[in-house]
Amino acid sequence: MTEAEAAPRYRSGLFKNPVVVKELRGRMRGARAFAVLSVYLLLMSGFATLLYVLSTASQDIFGFTSGGQVGRTLFTGIVGIELFLVTFIAPAFTASAISGERERQTYDLLKTTLLPARALVIGKLFSALSYVFLLLIAAIPLQSIAFLFGGVSEIEVVLAFVILAVTAITLGTTGIYFSAVQPRTLSANITTYAVTLFITVGLPLMIFIVVALISSFLGGRLADVPAEVQALLLYGLLALAATNPLMAAFLTQFWLLNKQSAFFFYETVSSTTGILQVPIISPWILFSAVYLLAALILLIRTVRRVRRIET
Amino acid sequence: MSESDLTPNLPESTAPAAPSAALINENELIVETRGLVKRYGKLTAVNDLSLSVPRGAIYGFVGPNGAGKTSTMRILTTLMLPSAGQAYVAGHEVTKNPRAVRRLIGYMPDYFGVYDDMKVWEYLDFFAACYEIPEGNRPQMIGDLLDLVDLSHRRDDMVDKLSRGMKQRLCLARTLVHDPQVLILDEPASGLDPRARVEIRELMVELAQMGKTIFFSSHILADVAEICTHIGIVEGGKMVMQGSMDAVRRQLSPHREAVVTLLERADEAKQVLGAIHGVREISDLPDEGGRKRLRVVFEGEDTILSSMVQALAAKGIPVLNFNEQTQDLEAVFMKVTKGIVT
């Protein structure tokens, strides 16, 4: 029996998209996809083991082994490395999506078919991201080892996944946007990584410097700083979190532990002039909103670029 | 000058294997451009080009490299906007209704455009899906197309393992997945070995017999001469001459020529032929293996040819061979083009 006969006759939704079918067929063909997944999981397990050994060893000096601490180290370590991977893998998968078609000289062929630009772009994005998601989901059991030691709640696992997913979607869309705008895959890759580095490292660094400058300018004791200015600084921190997945993850967890809330809460700032209750939205919400909005804008612009007829 | 052997009582046919005239509707233009202009900065690639392709024709779009053939085709296939002028496919203006045009045309560019990580059937299946062919209809259609282009035995092979000729045939099959009315083929035979070239040519004729209009470009005149019903000669972005092969030939050389080979009675034959209306001149050609040969110059339609044959037969003159000398396209081409390349 051939594959055509074995395949289900009717598909639905995104799996009806010809680009998705083609891309997934190509990506999952042969041993490559499974080899990559296995190597990835082996590396992650190795990393988790290393973290475990390090965290238990360091605590042995004090004669303590706090299970919660070990669990927390394992969890944040694994999420951190995943975040790093997603930041670099997601754009790599998509930066060749459209420019690759041009280089293979199949772009014109696709453009003369009835395939809508929207279906091409979304199909490419979906199939690239689905492999990234496969990697993320495959690592969930590893993250969950932390549960054996305690110290990590279910909501943290869920929020970590949300932040990872949103990062993958937005950086993936950034890749596909530059892939459509730039003529070659090489230049698309370079621009994508430059922009990725800017939004994940450069922009937070700039905000951080500004916040640091303001606080040093205000000088000395925090209590001397008017509550209103402190509130502004707090929002600066929040803006930092909204532009950077690592900061978003870190601050979300910080407030989750201190305020027991992953959504909306008040932070108290006090100074000699008074006490202020500052309303705060948990950073992951702000981060997701900003990143998803950026992804949507990039997606629309990509579709427009692909739809455009050469002049 | 080339000779094409003809049976005396059949009208001249310029394209031996081309579709029968019944399939061609001269009055219904399926591809048309009016004053088409395409500029790239200062360079004018297409300069006020008007072409007309009747439904059912095999239209050879001939010209040197850089004459504006690919630009014209890219405009017709909705890939590029013209700087001025209009282009129509089956009455749809290409810039106003690109989707309708895409549904009607099958385009094969002058490169393969294949995915290296796909099997032959997957390649066709993917493009069929892009043309919104229902999934249930595809296996049958793919089987038929692979039969047509003689690639059924390579169905499950990876596309990049195919030879150039096979890739070209696969690409031709791809243009057919949505059963288009018009095939727009850019240099379909370029870069192929002689055998693959003949195969592509035969396929084009077969497709024309299936009722498809074929609009193809070439700079190889032999390809065009053998299979075309219509021709458009383009140079420097301008249409130099176009029309049916007969019309173009006739326009360039109003006189037609026939060579009659006789066993004997050459002088009697001269008298008989000289009496036929339309015959301008009769001269002797050198004997060939003891056979007498006459060159007859005439003007007019095919009926004159048949009257000549009938008259000779009526007198019982032993005719061995009767050929019309068709003017070589190469000669036509050299006559109308001046070697200008933009």
Order of helices and strands of chain A: HHHHHHHHHHHHHEEH
Q: Tally of extended strands of chain A?
A: 2
Sheet of most strands of chain B = 6 strands, mixed
What is the mean predicted local confidence, pLDDT of chain B?
A: 84
Gyration radius from CA atoms of chain A, angstroms: 23 Å
CATH homology-level superfamily of the largest domain in chain B:
P-loop containing nucleotide triphosphate hydrolases
Quick take:
The complex is a heterodimer of chains A (311) and B (342). By secondary structure, chain A is mostly helical. Chain A has helices at residues 3-6, 18-28, 32-60, 67-94, 97-103, 107-111, 117-138, 140-144, 146-149, 154-181, 185-218, 227-243, 245-259, 283-307, and strands at residues 264-271, 274-281.
Could you outline the blueprint of secondary structure elements for this entry?
The complex is a heterodimer of chains A (311) and B (342).
Chain A (H helix, E strand, L loop, with lengths): L2 H4 L11 H11 L3 H29 L6 H28 L2 H7 L3 H5 L5 H22 L1 H5 L1 H4 L4 H28 L3 H34 L8 H17 L1 H15 L4 E8 L2 E8 L1 H25 L4
Helix pairs in contact in A: 2-7, 3-4, 4-7, 4-10, 4-11, 5-10, 7-10, 7-14, 10-11, 10-13, 10-14, 11-12, 12-13, 12-14
Chain B lengths: L1 E3 L20 E16 L2 E13 L2 E5 L6 H8 L7 E6 L2 E2 L4 H7 E4 L11 H11 L7 H11 L15 H12 L6 E4 L8 H16 L3 E6 L2 H7 L2 E6 L2 E7 H8 L3 E7 L3 H9 L4 E10 L2 E8 L3 H13 L4 E8 L2 H8 L6
Parallel strand pairs in B: 4-9, 4-10, 7-8, 8-9
Antiparallel strand pairs in B: 1-15, 2-3, 2-5, 5-6, 10-11, 12-14, 12-15, 13-14
Q: Can you walk through the features of this model?
A:
The complex is a heterodimer of chains A (311) and B (342). Chain A has 311 residues and is mostly helical. Chain A has 2 domains: 12-197, no CATH class; 203-286, no CATH class. Chain A contains 14 helices and 2 strands; from the N terminus they run H-H-H-H-H-H-H-H-H-H-H-H-H-E-E-H. Chain A has helices at 3-6, 18-28, 32-60, 67-94, 97-103, 107-111, 117-138, 140-144, 146-149, 154-181, 185-218, 227-243, 245-259, 283-307, and strands spanning 264-271, 274-281. A two-stranded antiparallel ribbon of chain A has the order 1-2. In chain A, a hairpin with a 2-residue loop joins strand 1 (264-271) and strand 2. In chain A, helix 7 packs antiparallel against helix 14 (283-307) and helix 10 (154-181) runs parallel beside helix 14. Chain B is an alpha/beta fold. Chain B folds into 2 domains: 21-250, Rossmann fold (3-Layer(aba) Sandwich), CATH 3.40.50; 254-326, Alpha-Beta Plaits (2-Layer Sandwich). Helix content of chain B is 32%, strand content 31%. In chain B, the strands form 3 sheets. A 6-stranded mixed sheet of chain B has the order 7-8-9-4-10-11, with helices on both faces. In chain B, strand 8 (182-185), helix 6 (194-209) and strand 9 (213-218) form a beta-alpha-beta unit. In chain B, helix 3 (120-130) crosses helix 4 (138-148). Chain B is globular. The model of chain B is unreliable at 1-18 (pLDDT under 50). Chain A binds chain B through residues 2-5, 9-11, 18, 21-22, 25-26, 29, 104-106, 108-115, 309-311, and chain B through 74, 77-81, 95, 98-99, 102-103, 105, 107, 109, 111-119, 121-122, 125-127, 129-132, 135-136, 138-139, 142, 155-156, 174, 178.
